[in-house]
Amino acid sequence: MSGDLHCHTKLSDGTLGLEELIALAAKRGINTIAITDHDCLAGTVRAKIIGERSGVKVIPGVELSAYDSKNGKNVHILAYLFDSPDRIEGLCHSNATSRKRAGQYMMMKAAKRYPITSELIMKCAQGSTNLYKQHIMHALMQCGYTMSIYGNVYDELFLSENNINVQPKFADVYEVLEAVKEAGGISVLAHPALYDNFDIIEDLIKAGLNGIEVWHPTCSKENEAKLIAIAKKNKLLMTGGSDFHGMYNHGEWSIGDYVTPKQQLSELLNYKTKIKRQQKKLEAQQEAQLAEL
Questions:
Q1: Left (φ > 0), alpha (ψ -120 to 50) or beta: where does 184 sit?
Q2: Same domain, residue pair 27 and 76
Q3: Structural domain of residue 71, as residue ranges?
Q4: Residue 73, exposed/middle/buried by CB under 10 A (0-12, 13-18, 19+)?
Q5: Shortest CA distance to 28 belongs to which of 49, 7, 5, 56?
Q6: What is the pLDDT of residues 216-227, one digit of tens each?
Q7: Torsion sign (Cα): 25, 28, 33, 35
Q8: pLDDT-based confidence at 266, cuts 50/70/90?
Q9: Same structural domain for residues 201 and 270?
Q10: pLDDT (tens digit, 9 = 90+) per residue, 108-129?
């Protein structure tokens, strides 16, 4: 039993609703998934219920946006199986507010370059808890300025020297790791190759990082081998997922095309029990040592 542990829905920047995503997973024979919408826990409970009806195990998850101020890079942390989601709700709200503000600025900038209304962009974002670049591009597609989400227009607006990007002010990555720890969750560094986060993995491990996302559409075989070596050396969990966004995917793949293998999925699901068992054993040893004094 493998699992796709990186999926997005309409609640963030995906194009499928919870029911549609879970139905697709069931059709494709994927019986374990994690819905990891950006800075959003809104679908966690409902997804679990829908999953049970469809024979799909839905692991509680979220993709938390963060920033590494030392290196000036974005960092995404996947959090799974948290006991107290309220501990990270505040972080999600703060990140979402900042993202929404940045999205509104980009929406206004896009409207200056292309005759497009903010109402249409917001209509494309309907159902989402925020405003994303993909929603702006979707509106531009509907107006006939481009035939795809990604391509020349996207590159002009978001990748060129004269781009309209506005960087949201996300939480510090070490603050995010601490929040996941306080929530009783498992922290995994998402797609290290995408943001070139290799140089901070060691520091993140020292700060309590539990795992690394190894299997991902943006990860080459060379980087995959590199991440596996890092994970084994530091006894980290290894996960994988398609980073599925539906029509907003950055390429042609579907849910389940990139997964967490059976052994690694089992290690993730049993990780907290293993840690608690180790802590009890350590406490027992300490008590025995004190008794001998």
A1: left
A2: yes
A3: 4-85+173-291
A4: middle
A5: 56
A6: 999 999 999 999
A7: negative
A8: very high
A9: yes
A10: 999 999 999 999 999 999 999 9
